[in-house]
Each structure stands twice: as structure tokens, then as C-alpha cells.
Amino acid sequence: MAPPCSSALVLPCLLVIAMAALQSAVVFADTVTAKRPLSGSQSALVSKRRKFALGFFQPENSQHWYLGIWYNQISKHTPVWVANRGTPISNPDTSQLTIATDGNMVLLDNSTTAIWSTNISKIASNSTVGVILDTGNLVLADESNTSIIHWQSFDHFGNTWLPGGKLGRNNKLAGVSTRLVAWKARNDPSPGVFSLELDPNGTSQYLLEWSITQQYWTSGNWTGRIFADVPEMTGCYPSSTYTFDYVNGENESESYFVYDLKDESVLTRFFLSEMGQIQFLTWIYAAKDWMPFWSQPKVKCDVYSLCGPFSVCTENALTSCSCLRGFSEQNVGEWLQGDHTSGCRRNVELQCSSNASVMGRTDGFYTMANVRLPSNAESVVVIGNDQCEQACLRSCSCTAYSYNGSCSLWHGDLINLQDVSAISSQGSSTVLIRLAASELSGQKKKNTKNLITIAIVATSVLVLMIAALFFIFRRRMVKETTRVEGSLIAFTYRDLKSVTKNFSEKLGGGAFGLVFKGSLPDATVVAVKKLEGFRQGEKQFRAEVSTIGNIQHVNLIRLLGFCSEKSRRLLVYEYMPNGSLDKQLFDNKKHVLSWNTRYQIALGIARGLDYLHEKCRDCIIHCDIKPENILLDGSFAPKVADFGLAKLMGRDISRVLTTARGTVGYIAPEWIAGTAVTAKADVFSYGMTLLEIVSGRRNVQGRRRRQEQQDDGGAAADRPFPLVAAGRLFCGGGGRREEMVSAVVDGRLGGDADMGEAERACRVAFWCIQDDENARPAMATVVQVLEGLVEIGVPPIPRSLQFLAELADQSNYLQFFSDLLPSN
């Protein structure tokens, strides 16, 4: 017993008592004991550095309560672990998390019934405590030494994998693993049907599975640096904020992966969504939301049975899942909550018997076109569509068939049907869904009535079309121009000679030909490009031009028309008053582009390329991104030009680019190596262009230009700028970060630039120009980085830059590059 305090010691004693009370409060802030349980009527427990909280919560739009862990310092409530996933709490005020007499941590409903427990044996009674750590890990630890852990939530993941947690398998106990299991729905944490686990067969790859039985995605084996089928990892490993490590189980009791963060201020969330996709998210404080860094499968409809049986999945639709005709939702409540895995059921059962008929009517089929067929089909040898249909009708379990030269039947539940009509007609098929006769008869009457109406309307339209065609023909005789598909105008060569005043005012030229200024009769100013080295026939040219003419984006130049006469091929574009980017960056002595304008130009180019690569029906690779092919409108908004010419030129593209000396310095290494060129070649060219936007100078200089700069006192004129920038930014230099970034920004700006944006632009540029195309980010990622939605790590310096530096010392290095390019 402590001695009583004298009056002289009252203040010190009070301080001691206060400190003891504070220490007790601190212990209680993150700890559960038998004497200090946590109930729903109390505030949540918070980890020491206040990163994570443990307590009772109610999912949005849910009536149920759960005990879980969530991020404590962000505005959006985001659970990362739930104890009682399948057994909600009836009343949080009368429920509590405590330590039982046997030493286990238990969750009591109404203070009496244990609905969850750590369930560990051989623990001394009344000797343990529960602690929430700053890693988000809830541990059952020894009361006298909390470093001794008997149980941890990191061994029992929910749908989220946090940094420091081991996601793997037990090599001694078959079937035991720390798999991620998705929530059943957005507001229902009970275990869903989708899971992620390390391959139980012993390989180092992760598997995404449906009901643990059906695999629908794999990461590929670990190469020691990345997963074989996840090349995007190169963009964040090893030099960024993420590190991944793999412990092989050959001599270990377990095999697992673990990832950590170098920057503790970064919040990440690797989780398996209720839609069956794994997603890597980063918390963006400015946006106050989670932003995707990476996800797989990229196409939602590739998730197995996402929409359940007898439902169709439509990518990019507001609602991805919808029931087939003749079917309705199996569980309406689940569908309203976003859980479609129960699928759909028939409105009317099939009349399946030997005489399968009702009033003389048998089952029939509803035709559904433009679909991607499920894979679990039975092949039947038949002759013709009719026999295929009869083969399905003879089997009571047959629910659909498809005939495309061969007969495929589906039995039982029809799963994984995808509507691809809005994406592409390539690779699509037609499937016939089996329905009861009563589901089809009403449609037949309706169809007959509709056919009569359509016939009348069609006849009227035909008469009008004939009259319109006659009018157009007469107008063509006068104007000699006509509209084609979309809004393109088919010009005659004589028209364009007149429009351009016999091609007298040259705007510029490039790899594909010269460009001239012109003016249409309605005073619209245009740019007319005369294509050179073009060999395609007129029919193919018109088809390709028509496709390109229908592509519209705010950052892509608009094609207004074309001319195709004999060997002449010309394209008519909208006119850009501020010309090409190279003239504004390198040749304009009077006006220097502001930093904000440059950054918006860089962002606009990235958005335009992202549209070409990902948003068009077919991926379009530009093949010649450089400042000369970036045009600026009256407000300096960028528009990518010549984006369709690579598609038009076909195999001639390499020969044309070879002759274009100005293109050297933007060409990706795969062009020189002669390997297949993908959209990542554009990413490389964009990276080189972005460096020029930042610096206001050419990345590589010809001999004459380098001599001029040296004569003017250019200190670094003898070395390629990308190598100079890499040395200043990423190889030290002894200065502050802002000073190093400022050293690579165009000096004409006088330091008037956002250095944070400049560093971000340089980092993404160097990721874009990596030697390995798999290490380069997609343009969609580039857009997110420049928008500040995604952080990006420090890139490695490409080996090709050193090669470029060596060539810079040679007077003929431009010719050297040209000689390396394939000629045909």
C-alpha cells in the first residue's frame, strides 16, 4: 500500500495518479480484457497510432450489425475484416467482445450466446488480452507479454489483404490456406461465392475461383520479380512504394506472399469485391475516396457466373446482369442489393415429355444474337440447323443450342452468357434459348403484326430513299461532292485543288505526306493532307476512312472528308489555328507556353491515346506520336493528328516511318528489334514527347542543331535530354527535390511551374520509355497519374538511354537509327 501524501507532496502525487490513469486509458484504447470488454454502447477501440479501429458497425443500407476492423483516419467507412460474417448481431448495445475464462476472445450476443470465438486450445485461463494493432491486425496475445501471439486476424482474412499479412497455404495440412473470400453483396459481409487463394497444387500462382471449384483467372507463376500474367506489377515493383516477397514452402511449413509499403502515409486496399474482381486501391485524400490502381479480371463479364444461371452479362452497362427472355430474378431482394449470383428462373416450365405438347404446341426457341457463348457445351454430330434443334428438343435437360457449322447443346443451367453487341461483332455467335410454347406464341402474333407495320413503313422509306438518291445524284452533277457514311464528304481532286488554291499554302509535312491550308465554299477553314506511298485500293480505303471518320474525341483531330481518285489519296481535317506542338515548343520565340497549358496538353494527349487504345471498337495504334503530330486549337487544347494513318497504311507503315528522319528519338525499341508492335509503342513515344513538353527542348538533336546550342552556351547540348533529366531527378545530385525538378523544367518559364506536377510528369514519362514494353503503363494509368488519382513510384533508368548517349557522340547517329529500322 502506498504511503499517504503530505501536503507538500500533494501536487506530485496527483501527477502520478493522473499519469497512471492516463496510462490505463491508453491501454484500454486498443485492448480488450476480461475486465474491460468492448460493447456496442462504447466507442470503438483504436490502435496506438490511430490508424485502425475495432468496433461494432452497420453496413450501409443494412439492418444488421457486425464486429469489425476499419480504417480510422479517412472519411469513408471501409471495413477490412469482420468477425461474425455469417451471424449478424441482434442488438449491439447488449453484445460485447471479451476474453472468456478459457482465455479465448469471444463475441457474445445479448451478453450470453457466443457467436464467434478465436477457438484456440491450450491457453492458460485468464492470461490473455485482445489488441488491435496499427497494421490492422487483431491479435490474441499473452497479457504479460503482448509480443507472444496465440491468434491473429491476419491468419483469417475476410475480403481484404492488408500490408504485412501472409496470403498463402499450409504445406503440411492440405486444404488449409489464408484465402480471400468476397462479401456476398455490398451490404452483406457473409461469405460469397468468389475466392482468391495460392494454388493448392503447389505452384506459386494465385487462382480466382467460383465456389472453390471453378477457376476463372490466374496470376501466372511468380518469376522472382512479378507474376507472369501480371506485367503491370513492373510499374510498382521494386522501386515504388510497394514491395512483394514470396516464401517458398520447399523447406517451410507454409508458402505465402507478403507485401509491404515503404511509405506509411500511403493507404492501400487489396480486396476481392462482391463482383468477383480483385482490386488494388489507393486512398486519394484530395478526392476523399478509393481509386483503383489495378484490377483483374479487367472485364467484369469474364468473372465466372457473375450473373448466375439464365442471365446475360453486358459489359459497360449500367446494370451488368439481366435475366434472359422468359426468365425472372430468382431472388429479387438479392438482386436489389447487387448480388446476382442466384441468377434467374423460368416463368413457365418446359413441356418436356415424349409428346411434349400443350394443345399441339411444343417447346420452342428464342434467338439471341451477338453473344459470347458459355464454354460448357456438348458437341453433337448433326447435319444442319434443324437436326441440331431436334437434338435439343429430344433431351429434357437441354436448355439452349447453337449451330454454326457444328452443333452445340447446353444442358441444365445456362451460365456465363455475355452480350457483346455493344463491344464488337467479332467472335460473337447466336444462341437459341429453349422456352415453353406459351412464352413464344404471344410474341409470334406480335411479330406478325409488327412485320405488316414494318413492311408498310419500309415501302414508304424505300420510295423516299429513291427520291432522295435521285436528288443527291442531281446535286452531285452540280457540286461533285457527296456525303458518305457518318458526316464525311467525298471530295473530287478538282474540288480540293480549288479549295487549297492549287495546294499553294503549305502548313507542314510529315511521314505520311504534306499538309495544305484550304477554305470550303461555306468559309470553313480546313487542312488537306496529300498521302504519299499509299497502295491500298479505293474500296478498302473508303472502308477504312469511313471507320476512322466515325471516331470522335475531344483530343483527336476530326476528319471531315476525303478524296480517292485513281492513285490519289487525300484527307480533309479540321483546321487548327495554333498549329503543331513542335512549333509552339521549339520555334516560337515570342510566346512561351505556360506550365498549366503544357500540363493540360500532356493530359489531353494521354486521354486521346487512351481512347484510341481502349475505347474504340478495335484498338488503333498511332505508331508516330511526336510533337509534330499534336495540333493545338484556338485555346491550345491538344488534338492527336494522323491517328488513323497507321491503320490506313497497313504494311507500308514501317517503310514510311523509315524515311522520316524526324521520327527518330520517339521510336520504341521494338521497332528497331523488328518484333511485333503493340499499343505500348505509342506509350514509349508519348513518354519521349512528354519529356519535351516539360523541358521545352528536343530529346535528341541533330549535329547542326547541337553545334548551334553549343555555340550559344548550351551546357548540356552534347547529351540527350532524357539522360540528363534522369541523372538530375533519380540519381541524386545533392540538391533538394524541388531544385532537382526545377533543373529539368523549361528555363524560359523562370521557375513559374508546379514542381509537384513536373515531378509527376517526369516519373510517368520515364515509366513510359522503359525498354521492356510490359513495364510501361497503359495510357489509362497515365491519365490517372497525371490527374493525381494514382501515385507512381520512382522508375528505373532505361538502358536504351545510355545507348542513346553513346550515339549522341557520333555525327551520324540519326542516320544510324534510320538504318536499323525495317524497310518493309
TrEMBL record:
Its EC number is 2.7.11.1. It is a single-pass type I membrane protein. One of its GO terms (biological process) is response to other organism. Keywords: ATP-binding, Disulfide bond, EGF-like domain, Glycoprotein, Kinase, Membrane, Nucleotide-binding, Receptor, Serine/threonine-protein kinase, Signal, Transferase, Transmembrane, Transmembrane helix. Residues 501-790 form the Protein kinase domain. Residues 29-153 form the Bulb-type lectin domain. One of its GO terms (molecular function) is ATP binding. Residues 1-29 form the signal peptide. InterPro entries: Bulb-type_lectin_dom, Bulb-type_lectin_dom_sf, Kinase-like_dom_sf, Pan_app, Prot_kinase_dom, Protein_kinase_ATP_BS, S_locus_glycoprot_dom, Ser/Thr_kinase_AS. One of its GO terms (cellular component) is membrane. The chain crosses the membrane at residues 451-473. SUPFAM superfamilies: alpha-D-mannose-specific plant lectins, Protein kinase-like (PK-like). Residues 352-436 form the Apple domain. It comes from the Eukaryota. It catalyses: L-threonyl-[protein] + ATP = O-phospho-L-threonyl-[protein] + ADP + H(+); L-seryl-[protein] + ATP = O-phospho-L-seryl-[protein] + ADP + H(+). Belongs to the protein kinase superfamily. Ser/Thr protein kinase family. This is Receptor-like serine/threonine-protein kinase. It comes from Oryza nivara.
